Amino acid sequence: MKRILLDCDTGIDDALAIIYGIRHGAQFAGIGSVHGNVPAPLAAANTLRVLDVLGAAEIPVRVGAARPIAQPLCTAEHVHGADGLGNTNLPPPKRSPYPGSAAEQIVSLAHRFPGELTLVAIGPLTNVALALLLDPELPALIPDVIVMGGVVQPPGNVTPLAEANIWHDPEAAALVIEAAWSVTFVTLDVTMRTLLREDQLAAIANAATPHGRFAWSVLQFYLDAYERRLATRTCPLHDPLALALALDPSLATYRSLPTRIELRGETSRGMAVCDLRGPQADRDSSWHDVRYVAELDIETFHHRFLDALLS
Q1: Whose CA is closest to 36, among 198, 139, 165, 159?
Q2: CATH architecture of 3-310
Q3: Could you tell me if 238 and 191 are in contact, meaning their C-beta atoms sit under 8 angstroms apart?
Q4: Strands annotated E in 84-130
Q5: What's an example GO BP annotation here (predicted)?
Q6: Alpha-carbon gap, residue 127 to 121, rounded angstroms
Q7: CA 281 → CA 89, 177, 257, 258, distances in Å?
């Protein structure tokens, strides 16, 4: 089993990612919440609700950053519901978050399991950036960072040029890609290829497992939101894909692209800018290599996603 340190803003697709991870053998060393889809305290409560459904009460959950580093808080209840889980209004979780912050948890677990963790960030990167500020040696302890974020070739999903997780805290994203560790971005370019088909939705609707029934209940609001956008009843699997690739990188092929995060542009703030000119282009030190998903085995990923919910 791979040891995962998860950082999330638990709304609907984060919940699906947690289910995917546990059902496919991820060993979660800890989970931290962050602002994004919903405020960080609600994201932590939702994480605990998902773990209750899965019977995974042993995983420590801590509340993380309440707001971005340098801009006002903005959340996405229009996509995830006022409660972050599709307005299902579930009862309170059976336990409370652990004391201490999510950023402190990243540092502590990195020292406890040096070289063993894969850090999977499926929300804004504020906690990860704060952990880097707490311990600049962190990249020597965490070999791989998987980020659901960015877009190589726009459009974005929150502005014409920016993807939500990067846009919610561009300064944090800049700190993360500047650090001396391996960073992989699982971008909208690839996650939007994972739209669920009608037959796959029908299979989830008929799920007999508790976690499958839970998934179907929270998915309704998400499907409504994407139907308004795409004019067909479907949704992409943004966060589950990032978790799937953390567990099995061979599901995809990759390419490395020089990247920087736009912080100042009036219309481009929050854009993960990729230099596509090739290795011979003249670049300054503001560019940092980021690994991007190129091709994806979508059928295998869909099969594994359904298996996580239905088996």
Answers
A1: 165
A2: Alpha-Beta Complex (3.90)
A3: yes
A4: 117-121
A5: purine nucleoside catabolic process
A6: 9
A7: 53, 20, 12, 10
Q: Which of 238, 288, 302, 303 is catalytic?
A: 238
Which residues pair with residue 133 across a beta bridge? none
- Whether pTM > 0.85 for this model: the answer is yes
Q: Give alpha helix (H) positions in the chain.
A: 12-23, 40-54, 77-80, 102-112, 126-134, 164-167, 170-178, 188-191, 198-205, 210-230, 238-247, 298-310
Give 256's strand partners.
Answer: 291
Give pLDDT tens digits along the chain (311 positions): 789 999 999 999 999 999 999 999 999 999 999 999 999 999 999 999 999 999 999 999 999 999 999 999 999 999 999 999 999 999 999 999 999 999 999 999 999 999 999 999 999 999 999 999 999 999 999 999 999 999 999 999 999 999 999 999 999 999 999 999 999 999 999 999 999 999 999 999 999 999 999 999 999 999 999 999 999 999 999 999 999 999 999 999 999 999 999 999 999 999 999 999 998 899 999 999 999 999 999 999 999 999 999 99
**Strand order in 272-274's β-sheet?**
61-62, 27-33, 3-8, 117-121, 144-148, 182-186, 288-296, 252-261, 272-274
Give SS3 for 58.
coil
Query: Tokens standing for 131?
Result: 């952990």
Would residue 278 be called left, alpha or beta, if left means φ above 0 and alpha means ψ between -120 and 50 degrees?
Answer: left
User: Is residue 302 annotated as a catalytic residue, yes or no?
Assistant: no
C-alpha radius of gyration, the chain, whole number: 18
